[in-house]
Amino acid sequence: MTPNRHGSAVIEFPSELEIVITREFEAPIALVFDVLTKPEHVSKWGATPPDRMTECSIDLRVGGSYHSSFVTGDGTVFSFSGTYLEVEPPTRTVETWLFNCWPDAEAVETMELHEHEGVTTLTWKLAFSDKAGRDHVTRFDGQQDSLDEMEDILRSLLDPSRA
Amino acid sequence: MSISEYVLSMARASTTSDVFNAVADVHRRKILDVLITGEKPVGAIVGDLSMSQPQVSKHLRVLSEVGLVRCRAEGRRRLYRVAPEQLRPVHDWVGKYERAMNDRLDRIDDYLQELQRQGDGSDT
């Protein structure tokens, strides 16, 4: 019987520039890597209904790019894109991360996988390069504008599909 | 309800609470970190942090206004302590976010299990 790991993600903020999420999966590392990096798999889990994933392209090689787009129930479009800096199947990818709602934020995303006794641990890190990006995460001044931004932040955190 | 609507409703709800504003400031969070270890006078907080007494007093005023910090007089001293129950809105808000994040990872998990049941996951 496979243990139920639902709800087991660990979310940490090791510094003001970084967000780290850790999650274990009851699956071999090669399969987890494929599910996280192949468009035919990502399109299966990428969107949260009723949102739809409208685009998912992944050119998984150093210098290759990825792009994913989502449309929400109210027609809002979110997209993520970037370029792969490191690709080491099935353990690691490093890529730049751009989010259409935060044009001034630059970040580098790192996905690492580690398998131990049939259990694969995903460590997903988003590291902002400077204060502009960081401020999206830490800004919290109670104004509606920033609260709207907060929604965008959360949405982006909910989308590890470019990992 | 989509996550975006859900999160937006949470964000809007939070405008009714200044607690979020109070903990947005790194200095005020440091003061809370000091006070969580026990009741202290202003001087002790100043001693623990690299802030001036006027600065600490200003932040204590903000924290007191939203109920995160309570103050009582003991002789001529005023002692400050944290009222952690007032952090409940922040705790609840973060909890909802964690659940939403988990939903996505749980979906990956379910998909992985489905692929393995199908024996369809061996291509690399």
Describe the secondary-structure layout.
The complex is a heterodimer of chains A (163) and B (124).
Chain A: E1 10-15, E2 18-25, H1 29-37, H2 39-45, E3 52-58, E4 65-71, E5 77-88, E6 92-99, E7 107-116, E8 119-128, H3 131-138, H4 144-157
Antiparallel strand pairs in A: 1-2, 2-8, 3-4, 4-5, 5-6, 6-7, 7-8
Helix pairs in contact in A: 1-2
Chain B: H1 3-14, H2 19-24, H3 26-35, E1 40-41, H4 42-48, H5 53-65, E2 69-74, E3 77-82, H6 88-118
Antiparallel strand pairs in B: 1-3, 2-3
Helix pairs in contact in B: 1-6
Textual characterization of the structure:
The complex is a heterodimer of chains A (163) and B (124). In chain A, 23% of the residues lie in helices and 42% in strands. Chain A is an alpha+beta fold and 163 residues long. Chain B has 124 residues and is mainly alpha-helical. Chain B is built from six helices and three strands, in the order H-H-H-E-H-H-E-E-H. Chain B has a three-stranded antiparallel beta sheet with strand order 1-3-2. In chain B, helix 1 runs antiparallel to helix 6. Chain B is elongated. The model of chain B is unreliable at 1-16 (pLDDT under 50).
Average residue pLDDT of chain A = 79
Strand order in space, largest sheet of chain B: 1-3-2
Radius of gyration of chain B: 22 Å
Strand content of chain B: 5-15%
Estimate the helix proportion of chain A, in percent.
10-25%
- What would you call the quaternary organization? heterodimer
User: Percent helix among the residues of chain B?
Assistant: 55-70%
Count of separate DSSP helical elements of chain B: 6
Q: Shape of chain B, please?
A: elongated
Number-wise, the strands of chain B total 3
The largest β sheet of chain A comes out as: 8 strands, antiparallel
* Extended strand count of chain A: 8
C-alpha Rg of chain A (nearest Å): 16 Å
Structural class of chain B: mainly alpha
Termini separation of chain B: 36 Å
* Biggest beta sheet attributes of chain B: 3 strands, antiparallel
